[in-house]
Amino acid sequence: MSKKLIVGLTVVAAVFLAAYFASPVLAVRGLTEAARTGDEAALRQRVDFPAFRASLKDELNAELMVRMRADPRSDNPVLSGLGMLLAPSLVSGAVDAFVTPQAIASMVRSARAPNPVARPEPAEPSEQERDTVRQSWAYRDLDTFAVTLTNSEDPDQHLALLMERRGLFSWKLAGIDLTAPSEDDAI
């Protein structure tokens, strides 16, 4: 093989790998900018709403079950069982109605988990709100990229938005993780 061919293939491979591994960062920046400006059309393009809703339902149901089991008032096993039976239905309906482009924008701007009881305000975020949210990025696997949002006013609470690869260089927001990030989550 000629030396020019080897150099050319090496350059092509390096450019491909750089684009492959940098593409989620660009997708996150696009999502963040769309959330900050309130661009609903851009948010609709960057979010897989059915997958995101399913992920949020799973997370909220798991959190609700943990809270119900830990509640000292749950002495009556019949009432506790009924609550655990009905809770997923209530969460499902609330999430289906709640998850909109405005709700996604509110989560990205505030780094706070969604509250299905209150509708998000479509108002422009304040300068203070923009400055309080910190992002950290990590691959969870080759096709899942997590952007963990932390509000500096509440550093113990984390919100991880999970971007999933769609094709070689395209990414969509498809999940959420409400648990605190751990060292084992990133590769």
Summarize the structure.
With 187 residues, the chain is α+β, with helices and mostly antiparallel strands.
Helical proportion, percent range: 40-55%
Specify the oligomeric state: single chain
What percentage of the residues does DSSP assign to strands (E)? 15-25%
Alpha-carbon distance between the termini?
35 Å
**What structural class do you assign from the helix and strand content?**
alpha+beta
What order do the strands of the largest sheet run in, or round the barrel if closed? 1-2-3-4
Unreliable spans are 182-187
Order of helices and strands: HHHHHHEEEE
Give a quick account of the main beta sheet: strands, pairing sense, barrel closure.
4 strands, antiparallel
Q: Report the total helices.
A: 6
Round the mean pLDDT to the nearest integer and report it.
82
Extended strand count: 4
Tell me the overall shape.
elongated
Report Rg.
20 Å
Task: Describe the protein in words.
With 187 residues, the protein is α+β, with helices and mostly antiparallel strands. It has helices spanning 3-37, 40-46, 49-70, 77-98, 101-110, 127-132; strands at residues 133-141, 144-151, 154-166, 170-177. A 4-stranded antiparallel β-sheet has the order 1-2-3-4. Mean pLDDT is 82; it is low at 182-187.
Give the helix/strand layout.
Layout: H1 3-37, H2 40-46, H3 49-70, H4 77-98, H5 101-110, H6 127-132, E1 133-141, E2 144-151, E3 154-166, E4 170-177
Antiparallel strand pairs: 1-2, 2-3, 3-4
